[in-house]
Amino acid sequence: MNLFKFSSPQTFYSLAGTLAPVFGVIAAVLATVGLYISFFAAPTDAVQGEVYRIIFIHVPAAWMSMVIYLAMAFWSAIGLGLGTRLSFYMAKALAPTGALFCFLALWTGALWGRPTWGTYWAWDARMTSQLLLLFLYFGHIALTNAIEDARRADKAGAIIALVGAVNIPIIYFSVKWWNTLHQGSSINLTKSSMASTMLIGMLIMALAAWAYSIAVTLVRVRSIILERERRTDWAAAEIRLQGAKA
Amino acid sequence: MNNAFIAVLRRDLLLAWRSRADLLVALSFFVVVASLFPFGVGSDPDQLRAIGPGVVWVAALLATLLALPRMFSQDFDSGVLEQLLLSQEPPVAWVSAKIAAHWLSTGLPLVVVSPLLALMYGLEPGAIKVLALALLIGTPILSLIGAIGAALTLGLRGAGSLLALLVLPLMVPVLIFGAGSVDAWASGIGLRAHLLLMGGGLFAALALAPSASAAALRITMD
Fold first, then answer.
1. Exposure winner among A12, A143, B13, B182, fewest CB in 10 A?
2. pLDDT tens digits for A51-80?
3. How many domains does chain B have?
4. What is the reported pLDDT for A193?
5. Does the model's ipTM exceed the 0.85 cut?
6. So where are chain A's domains?
7. Core vs surface per residue A186-221: b (16+ CB within 10 A) or e
8. Any idea which architecture A20-186+194-245 has in CATH?
């Protein structure tokens, strides 16, 4: 099978239409199982009590926010290298979901930090780099929205995504170093080895987050494809069809 | 290639010199912002000495940001940028020249003025030297990173605030090591690690940022 067949927006549009509901169902099933394990099956933590259960949302969200930025950078590189429009659409479709997960990771982290560390926010290395990642997402979204010429917006967004991807490790390690210089490890999680049910619950929630992100991105990319390709015959016909249904 | 670099560098420096009032505005902004902090946090000498390096660095970051749009915008408006892109000269050469000229006309003055601000914050002579040295290595990185943002936001509505959102997060490592070098020196850890890391950052930025800016300019002018 020739994968490049799907680099055409038209063929990918229908492929995404088939795959999006599949991943949506997978996400729903995994989230149901994962949430059941999180809230009922997993034992209460010896040190933190019930509040540790935030981990089942918090950690998958944090993972996802980083993975999605890498995926954006990947599609941006492909787009700039091969000049495929669809790659830019993918990068654009990924950004809001990444920003959402980044925000969720920060928000749940604050809610978790208050009862366990006694503070909503600390200038801890991970939290600070997560915050900067959120700013990178905002910058990417703001830049691509500010440029009216769609093709310029695509490429400018791709450049800033790549520059950001190069900088993320630098930011992470510099923040880590800065933090260890200023304050000792006063707020390290005293995590004994995790119970296996907890670990399984977290992994299932992480897979649910993956499936959700894929489903949402595919739905979003379909809208972007229709918007950008509206001057082609097939897209115009599809838009008319959708309009007739609605 | 060298000819293009030197020609553009000379031209930009000459233009900067002829409109030196603009440069003084950016420099005054640097001084004014740095002088605002004591009004906000109080005039306790120990506290001011502690925050001094950080304040000077943040002010330098903001002053650089304020001056960034000028790097390409005049040439964009007058069409010079388009002619440069059409010319046979490699874009990396003249983009590097423009960045160098921009740093010489806006970054270097900040370095020169910084000891004055450091004195106002009561830093000791050794710390003042360290701060100036760190700014000397760090401000070129700010100009290099900023050039990418300036090229990407060229000619956009609200380019200034967009530029801040794009480049300030990327400048955080420079801020950390720049301001941190003074603390490291004061605490006796030594400067070496900080300055070496910033030097490494400078070379990495020198290698990557001009080509990224050139690519961004091509996209903008497409």
1. B13
2. 888 888 998 999 999 999 999 999 999 999
3. 1
4. 57
5. yes
6. 20-186+194-245
7. ebeeeeeeeeeebebbbebbbbbbbbbbbbbbbbbb
8. Up-down Bundle (1.20)
* CB pair distance less than 8 Å for A139 and B165: yes
Burial class (CB in 10 A: 0-12, 13-18, 19+), B51: middle
CA distance B165 to chain A (A): 5
Task: Pick A170's closest partner by Cβ from B162, B168, B173.
Answer: B173
State the residue range of the domain holding B81: 2-221
Q: Are B177 and B111 in contact (CB under 8 A)?
A: no
Average pLDDT on A16-33 reads 94
B191 touches chain A (CB under 8 A): no
The total number of residues shown for chain B amounts to 222
Quickly tell me which residue has 């040439």 as its tokens. B75
pLDDT tens per residue, range A193-229 = 566 888 888 899 999 999 999 999 999 999 999 999 8
Q: Among A188, A225, A230, A157, which residue's Cα sits nearest to residue A8?
A: A225
Considering only CB atoms, which residues of chain A are within 8 Å of chain B? Answer: 80, 132, 135-136, 138-139, 142-143, 146-147, 151-152, 155-156, 159-160, 162-164, 166-167, 170-171, 174-175, 177-178, 181
